[in-house]
Predict the structure.
Amino acid sequence: MWVPIVLALAAISMPPQAAPIQRHTLSLPNGGELRYAIAVPEGYDGTREVPLILALHFGWGEALPPNYGAVFLEILVEPALRELGAIIVAPNCPARSWVDDRSEAAVLALLDHVRDEYRIDPDRLVVTGFSLGGMGTWYFASRHAEMFSAAIPMASVPMIATSSEPGASVQRFVEAGSVEWPPAMLRLPTYVIHSRDDELIPIAPVEAAAAELQALGAPVELVAIDAGIGHHQTPRYVPYLARTVAWIRDVWAAR
């Protein structure tokens, strides 16, 4: 009688399977196209709402291979956040940067499309990204904080909403007081991950930005990695991103 019980317990404890990654092209309202990859969790049948994760890849956009979003899903976001049972969508950057009006419009159109195609819980939408995608994460969090339940920028300097000055460019955090933090962003739970050994984007301004946000009462956490990880060692971030699963669940439970 004990064998079926053991087998049943083993089945319960088995980790979720990797979600197959699909590659698609979306026709945009302006007539252009957006390539994207999407990972739909095993067992999704549309009977219940599931979370949605927007994953913004590293690397400058326009010169990249056509399936760069899929690569980003495969090496970092899908294995790290699989336990959430979320649909994960990773567009290819349609411009040189995510911090760009064209990229912003394309990503918002993609999110609308995914929410039309799948049953998405509007209260469980997370944005994350690495390097250039991390800058995009800060940018989307600053401009669309009401859309997301959490933001997880990695290996990136904060790029913030455009200045209130006419014709001003997007603000980049440099030192205390160098950016105007949008009020809505001060309420968005944000989990920042950065390596102390990042040779391309130093951690000091990131630490200063996190400290400034915390001083303003923003729900921001910073994980500084002390493991000798360089900027281009993206797969080594998997265990650190995976640790956000419990944090994300706590954020959702508190909503």
Remarks:
- The chain has seven helices and ten strands.
- The helical segments are 2-13, 68-81, 101-117, 132-143, 204-215, 238-242, 244-254.
- The chain has a mean pLDDT of 91.
